[in-house]
Amino acid sequence: YSAGTMPSSYAVVSTVRFGAQILSLCAFGAATCTQGGSPIPVSSVSASSSSSTTGVGSPYVAGCSGTPTNCPAATRDGDTRSVWHCDTASSCWITYNFASAVTVAELTLVRVQGPNAAYNRFPGATLVSDTGTVTSFGNLGSTITVQIVLPNPVTTSWLRFAVSGSNWAALAEMSFCSPAPTPAPTIVPTRAPTAVPSAAPTQVPTATPTIMPTTKSPTSVPTV
Fold it and tell me: 85 near 111, Cβ under 8 Å?
């Protein structure tokens, strides 16, 4: 790997599936959120170890001041020429800490070319969160930039990549994206019911009672 070999743009060339996850393999460079989410800031980065090998990463990284040159902060500086390089051949890991619990739906990693132009310094990894293993991925081939869309977004305060293989792990960049926001529901106004006037009751006139004359008074018959 040498400075200037990783352009700053990328092009998606294929999509493949490893286990339960979808990987969009890109040709090169840095990537952005592809699923409608937003970039997630990282508060700090730590690693199993870091080397000071001068032939792996080239630029000075301010975040590595007082630590080995190829420290994990190099994976968050936006420069693919600076890298994190593990100082052991195996059992390498790198952990990204967030300021608080976040939901991660997508991540993008930029790999580093190893000996004989092989991208074997980060052949795959097991992704672990604060609640346990999220997924594992491998067989990334010679693709420089790999975008991973998690089928089930994970809510966590940190993510760790336990790198597979024994190839003196190295990584140039790593970024994370949140899920796409849930669309606000469309409010359909309810139509006011039409008031139906009640029919006025029909007034039925009360019949006037007929006054019948009383029975005729009896005729008085004189006494003889």
Answer: no
